[in-house]
Write a structure and sequence with these properties.
This protein is mainly α. The protein is built from three helices and no strands. Belongs to the SecG family. Its main location: membrane.
């Protein structure tokens, strides 16, 4: 279960970093400030959002599960 937590933590970090920056901050420093010519969110962005939410929920469940096992 600890290996799963490490795996999901790494995956969650990668998914969060893949998101497009909303302007300003550190995201501009790494190229996140480039605007696309297409307005709205694309299918790829919506799928990335969904994957991030699913991985975050699994990560949260893993943290809670490890907390209960260690108690």
């Amino acid at each position: 279960m600890q290996v799963a937590l490490i795996l999901f933590s790494f995956l969650l970090g990668l998914l969060v970093l893949m998101h497009k920056g909303k302007g300003g901050g550190l995201s501009d420093m790494f190229g996140g400030g480039m605007q696309s010519s297409v307005g709205g969110s694309s299918v790829a962005e919506r799928n990335l959002d969904r994957m991030t939410i699913v991985v975050a929920l699994i990560w949260f469940g893993t943290v809670v599960g490890l907390g209960l096992l260690m108690k």
